[in-house]
Amino acid sequence: MNALAPLVATVQRRPSAAILVGVPLLAAVLGAALAWALRGDDQPSAHRTPAAATATAFAVGDLELALPDGWREVRSGPVVPGFDPARTRFVASVSSQVAFALLPPESPTLLPAALAARQDAAALAPRILRAGDVQAYHYVTAIGANRVIDVFAAPTTRGTATVACSTSVYELGECQSVVAGMHLARGSFLPPSPDAAFLERLPDAMATLNADRATLRARLAQAATPAAGARVANRLAVSYASAGRALRPLLGAEGPARATVRLLDRLRAEHVSLAAALATQDRTGFARAAGTIAAHEARLAKRLDAWQRSLPR
After folding, report:
1. Where are the beta strands (DSSP E) in 69-190?
2. Cβ neighbours of residue 15 closer than 8 Å, sequence gap 6 or more
3. CB 39 within 8 Å of CB 53
4. How far is CA 192 from the centre of its chain?
5. Helix residue spans in 148-222 (DSSP H)
6. Ramachandran bin of 41, using left for φ above 0, alpha for ψ from -120 to 50, beta for the remaining angles
7. What is the CA 148 to chain-centroid distance, rounded?
8. With contact defined as beta carbons under 8 Å apart, do 17 and 223 qualify?
9. 63-111 pLDDT per residue, tens
């Protein structure tokens, strides 16, 4: 089924729900589910680079490192706030120790929130590093009183590929070679940008919202009484609130991402208004809320389509 197809439902006449008759409540467009959210982006990565014959491969989840001989897996390494020990692997060379993980997005910096919270504003101004085929934010961060590490965060459709590199003796390109060796078993790298963390989470947030909308709108179309319809409309409002809450911590400066979340907030409020109109059997308020929902759903569909087109193909 086309993910962009509208969900249109009609409300059947029932003696106890006369307010529902003839009002185009469910003519609102269901909204665009990003194609990569629906398929789960579980296809093999098109950018996967085979390891060279002299390289050693290490992996954690869908993130893989192909590193030159001389690197080995170790049991421990840099302890970095926000890295889950159960999902982190460590490698070391003669002079460097590396922790690497595929982390969920937690802040627009692409750093784990626990690490970002410890940095001052200057430290949170990254530069973009290109190493091989990978682009990543590069941070120099303080861990403890006298310890500085390099952290590289590359956004992907599977989460943030994150490398923390600590060197005892500085060697030009040592940490960058680790970043260059990153590739994905599934998914794609995204270009670093203020909206990258938002884009990492958007597919899951929209997939959850779309599933809720499909179920709850079907129930709304079958509501036998205004009171029953009001309860379902309030649950729809909660679904929009949940989607906005999941995305809001990842917003950067003013721009399309903030506009997308504002639409989710408006749709939450409009479903609350819809529920209130149903509960009080206010025909005028009901029609007004339904029409506003339809208009804002159409705008949300356009914004999601624009996000889809902005992604690497």
Report:
1. 72-74, 89-92, 96-103, 127-131, 134-142, 148-156, 159-167, 182-184
2. none
3. no
4. 14
5. 174-180, 196-221
6. left
7. 29
8. yes
9. 998 887 788 889 888 888 899 988 899 999 888 899 999 999 999 999 9
- What's the DSSP call for residue 71? B
pLDDT digits (tens, 9 = 90+) for 255-308: 899 999 999 999 999 999 999 999 999 999 999 999 999 999 999 999 999 998
Q: How many CA atoms lie within 13 A of 301 on its CB side?
A: 16
pLDDT grade, residue 29 (50/70/90)? very low
Question: In terms of C-beta distances under 8 Å and separation of at least 24 residues, what long-range contacts does 41-44 make, across chains too?
Answer: 41/157, 41/158, 41/186, 41/187, 41/188, 41/203, 42/186, 42/187, 43/186, 43/187, 44/185, 44/186
Which among 69, 101, 76 has a CA at the least distance from the CA of 91?
76
Place of tokens 């721009």: 255
Q: pLDDT tens digits, residue range 139-191?
A: 988 776 667 789 999 999 999 999 999 887 766 678 888 899 999 999 899 99
Query: Can you read off the two tokens belonging to residue 32?
Result: 């665009």
